[in-house]
Write a structure and sequence with these properties.
Number of strands: 2
Largest sheet: 2 strands, antiparallel
Structural class: mainly alpha
Oligomer: single chain
Helix content: 40-55%
Number of helices: 6
Strand order of the largest sheet: 1-2
Distance between the termini: 30 Å
Order of helices and strands: HHHEHHEH
Strand content: under 5%
Shape: globular
């Protein structure tokens, strides 16, 4: 959250979504806030009570969506990301973080495909 606050201070528009009682966002709400000026979507998913990020990574990979667990700074490590814990994310939650990146070459169709498949996987 501190990173988002800093980006806002630098003049970037940041949109936040609330989560439900299960810690999940409404994918329709996500789709509705995406526009032509959207340059990054960052979603943290899963802890041990809600789900398993490794299982989610494999299921997304099976439908051609590449994501990673944890932060870029801690890829391949079993300990929680020092970046996530430094911004106040509890260690048990940080260990279940999911990282996905969208860039200039992604289209709205790519985002829609991700949302459709994420929703299907979560509902299973």
């Amino acid at each position: 959250m501190e990173t988002c606050k800093k980006l806002e201070e630098d003049g970037y528009k940041i949109s936040y979504l609330n989560v439900d009682e299960n810690g999940l966002i409404n994918l329709g709400d996500l789709a509705n806030i995406i526009n032509d000026e959207t340059i990054l979507i960052s979603i943290m998913f899963a802890n041990n009570e809600i789900g398993n990020s490794n299982e989610l990574i494999l299921k997304l990979d099976a439908v051609g969506i590449c994501v990673s667990g944890g932060s870029a700074c801690s890829s391949g490590e079993s300990k929680p990301s020092h970046v996530l814990t430094a911004i106040g994310v509890p260690s048990d939650l940080a260990k279940g973080a999911l990282r996905l990146t969208f860039g200039d070459f992604n289209t709205k169709d790519d985002v829609d495909y991700f949302i459709e498949n994420l929703e299907k996987i979560i509902k299973r």
